[in-house]
Specification:
This protein has eight helices and 25 strands. By secondary structure, it is an alpha+beta fold. The strands form five sheets. Strands 7, 8, 9, 11, 12, 13, 15 and 16 form an eight-stranded antiparallel beta sheet that branches. A six-stranded mixed beta sheet has the order 2-3-1-4-5-6, sandwiched between helices. Strands 17-23-20-19-24-25 form a six-stranded antiparallel beta barrel.
């Protein structure tokens, strides 16, 4: 078989595998970067030159063995301090599945970075040092995973080699964490005892823990059921661009281009344009220059409608029978990510899909204390890494789904209008899932609405 044919077959096989997005989290020195490095190394996902660079850097620091954490700690400050500061993304694949990994920081002051890394994750790996057990930062990361509706959580009890691989130590930590995460409404929790440094139960089963009969970390990542089928969700098409070529070949062509955020659109379907509420019918769908009868998320398409109605960037096209309510008032949970506070009365921009509108923070009802899930009422402001409830008044009505229904169309950003800095990431609707069941006028100058 030729090399070209072999490469083509390998590419075809890879494209047929499913994709898993996952994030790692844990307290400082719990071994997140070492786990990721071990995962990449033992799954043969590290290039030779990368491994040589790590070996060289490890020797220069006086280490006898390669420090696999250096495979992910890419920033100079991270290498010097031996900590993770920024979110490090890594892409790798096995014959069974492709992976996008977000290695997030463990420090309390970098909680906002975990929100960034876990916001699109299908699974979160929360590490715990077997010697320390469940600590405040562990509970914080579990709460963030629950807030972001991450469907699968893995508790990796690391450094089992330092507690003589004792089953009772693992069992106690697993029981405590499972009880806490269960209260938050995390739908699935899998506990795995590991030693990232020694490689126990990361890629290969451990000979030191014959009492454990579950999967290794990689085996679980390869086999956990992940559904990317958003075709059954509420259909939503945020309009990015209006296409009007006005050429001799297409004198009357008018199409509305965008990436389908969720659901399915079909030719002949009745649709509503929000926030105007105007209705029409889909007469054509163009996908990569070809007309199709049906399109689904996450395809980028151009939709053609029967009626010539006013549609522009930022509008939302939805099925008429499944249109979300529009409102000028949004209540949501936000994670504040900026260094400057978010205060009651502050003027902001709210960015939702392709639409950006002016808004005012009308109220901050509470700030969440993640270590015990208590609510601090009426804090007045949120500072960096705070998570709290906010009520926002918009200059114009917006159609936002509940985050529980759609992580894509239920999320938004609050932005500083003066310099474009992202202030907070928001999740509309209720905060945690239950354990049982997983108009004013616009004043352009004063922003008083």
């Amino acid at each position: 078989m030729s090399t070209t044919a072999s490469a083509a077959e390998e590419l075809a096989g890879l494209s047929a595998t499913t994709l898993l997005r996952f994030a790692t989290a844990g307290s400082v020195d719990d071994g997140k970067s070492t786990l990721v490095g071990r995962l990449l190394h033992d799954s043969k996902s590290v290039l030779t030159d990368q491994l040589e660079a790590v070996e060289l850097a490890s020797r220069s620091r006086g280490a006898a063995e390669p420090d696999l954490a250096l495979l992910t700690d890419g920033l100079r400050a991270e290498r010097e301090q031996g900590i993770t500061i920024d979110v490090a993304y890594r892409y790798f694949a096995t014959p069974r599945r492709r992976f996008i990994l977000a290695d997030t920081p463990g420090h309390v002051q970098y909680t906002r970075n975990m929100v960034t890394g876990a916001s699109t994750a299908d699974l979160a790996v929360v590490l715990v040092d077997a010697r320390n057990g469940v600590i405040e930062q562990t509970r914080r990361h579990a709460a963030v995973a629950a807030l972001l509706r991450v469907p699968h959580v893995v508790l990796a009890v690391n450094k089992m080699d330092l507690v003589d691989y004792e089953e009772t130590v693992f069992a106690k930590i697993a029981e405590e964490f499972t009880a806490y995460a269960g209260q938050l409404g995390v739908p699935e929790i899998t506990a795995i005892p590991i030693s990232a440094l020694a490689g126990d139960n990361v890629v290969e089963p451990s000979a030191n823990m014959d009492w454990y009969g579950g999967p290794t970390v990689l085996e679980h990542l390869e086999t956990v059921p992940v559904s990317h089928d958003l075709t059954s969700c509420h259909a939503r098409l945020p309009v990015q661009y209006v296409i009007r070529p006005q050429t001799a070949e297409h004198p009357d062509y008018r199409g509305y281009a965008g990436q389908i955020a969720a659901g399915t659109f079909r030719v002949g379907e009745s649709v509503t344009v929000l926030p105007s509420g105007r209705t029409s019918k889909v007469v054509g769908i163009d996908l990569l220059g070809t007309e199709v009868d049906v399109a689904w998320t996450p395809q980028s398409i151009t939709l053609r409608l029967e009626d010539d109605i006013d549609i522009s960037r930022g509008d939302l096209i939805v099925p008429s029978h499944d249109a979300p309510a529009t409102s000028q008032d949004i209540e949501a949970t936000v994670c504040h990510v900026a260094d400057t506070p978010l205060a009651v009365g502050q003027r902001v921009l709210l960015k939702h899909t392709t639409r950006t509108v002016k808004a005012i923070v009308k109220e901050i009802p509470s700030r969440l204390t993640l270590d015990d899930l208590s609510q601090h009422p009426e804090p007045g402001q949120l500072v960096a890494n705070d998570i709290g409830r906010v009520k926002v008044r918009l200059a114009e009505a917006l159609a936002i789904d509940s985050y529980a229904d759609s992580r894509r169309t239920g999320s938004f950003l609050l932005v500083d209008p003066s310099d474009g800095t992202t202030l907070a990431a928001g999740m509309a609707g209720e905060s945690f899932a239950s354990a049982e069941d997983p108009k004013a006028l616009v004043d352009e100058e004063g922003w008083d609405f």
